[in-house]
Design the sequence.
């Protein structure tokens, strides 16, 4: 367990006060993805899987990859099992959401600049609502969305499909609708987008926040 500074505060465990002038090739990121029982995160739906991997020096650190099923303490709908392959039997003895979230933020280890995901606001909300149920608040962790970077590079794109983008940008594709697989796919897409952004003049942490941060 993290030693919380306040009863209602859950640490993001990211680097604090990172200079905006830091070159992007010197940064570390946590790319992550979640699977849930559905899309009504504020009410009945819960996390059932988290997957994450580090990107450092504009390269994917595959050996850092983390995955955990999560016991949602409710039944997983049949359509979600069909989509993700995650059945009730797989999560019955899995850690609870709090343990998995702590592992995710531990991976950041106060060395990562921010969290990254594809349509990352959904994943951030999944975590924030799990923490809220425990009367905890995830205090404004910085996050970059690959969709925002794609919008900067190619504004005409209007779809959200991760696999389509991975194919279009020529990056690796791992198992779909698996949190670990989608995190790895997103990480390789993110690295390609970083290189393209760098070639277009996005050289620093401050530059990257301007084009990629979710608000």
Sequence:
């Amino acid at each position: 367990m993290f030693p919380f500074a306040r009863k209602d505060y859950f640490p993001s465990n990211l680097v604090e006060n990172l200079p905006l002038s830091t070159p992007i090739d010197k940064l570390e990121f946590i790319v992550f993805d979640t699977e849930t029982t559905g899309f009504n995160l504020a009410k009945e739906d819960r996390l059932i899987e988290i997957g994450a991997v580090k990107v450092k020096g504009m390269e994917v650190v595959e050996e850092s990859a983390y995955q955990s099923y999560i016991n949602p303490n409710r039944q997983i709908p049949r359509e979600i099992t069909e989509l993700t392959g995650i059945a009730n039997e797989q999560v019955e003895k899995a850690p609870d959401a709090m343990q998995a979230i702590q592992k995710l933020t531990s991976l950041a280890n106060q060395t990562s600049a921010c969290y990254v995901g594809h349509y990352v606001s959904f994943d951030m909300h999944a975590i924030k609502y799990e923490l809220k149920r425990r009367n905890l608040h995830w205090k404004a962790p910085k996050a970059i969305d690959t969709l925002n970077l794609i919008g900067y590079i190619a504004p005409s794109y209007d779809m959200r499909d991760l696999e389509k983008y991975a194919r279009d940008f020529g990056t690796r594709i791992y198992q779909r609708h698996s949190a670990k697989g989608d995190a790895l796919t997103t990480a390789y897409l993110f690295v390609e987008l970083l290189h393209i952004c760098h070639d277009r003049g996005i050289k620093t942490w401050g530059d990257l926040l301007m084009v990629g941060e979710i608000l």
In short: The chain has one domain: 22-212.
